[in-house]
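Bit of a strange request maybe. I'm writing a small parser for structure token strings and I need a real example to test against, not something I typed by hand. Could someone generate the tokens for this chain?
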Amino acid sequence: MPIKLENVAIAVRDLEATIAFFTDLGLTELGRDEVRGEWADTAVGLDGNHVRLAMLQTPDGHGRLELFEYLHPDAIETEPTQPHEIGMHRVAFSVDDLDEALAIAARHGCHPLRGVATYQDVYRLTYVRGPSGIIVMLAQELTTS
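Reply from user aminoacidic:
Good idea to test on real output. This should exercise your parser:
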């Protein structure tokens, strides 16, 4: 059976701020919608499900993020995920210029959890705490001369 990853969906507290963060990093907004009704309740398994959502795509067209903000029921605020916790961990992006990506993230108040690391002289990378506490990995492949 063929299988294809369609998207990763993330509940956010502020849809507009989260869209701004990811589009500034280079993702493209594909569209928005407001979703509710019996079909949504059935699919999600939640009565009264009502969200505003946006679909974003990476420039290469292979990765998509679905960001959604709950209108009903009220969203439940949780503690931000820690890197060692079981469950949804992070969303990762390759970037051409890590310093530029970090400057963009900083304009949104998002900073590295600890700093920038170099992995086996292959990548410079870091985790930043993005909007709504989302952990975002940014990695720049290093080239040898």
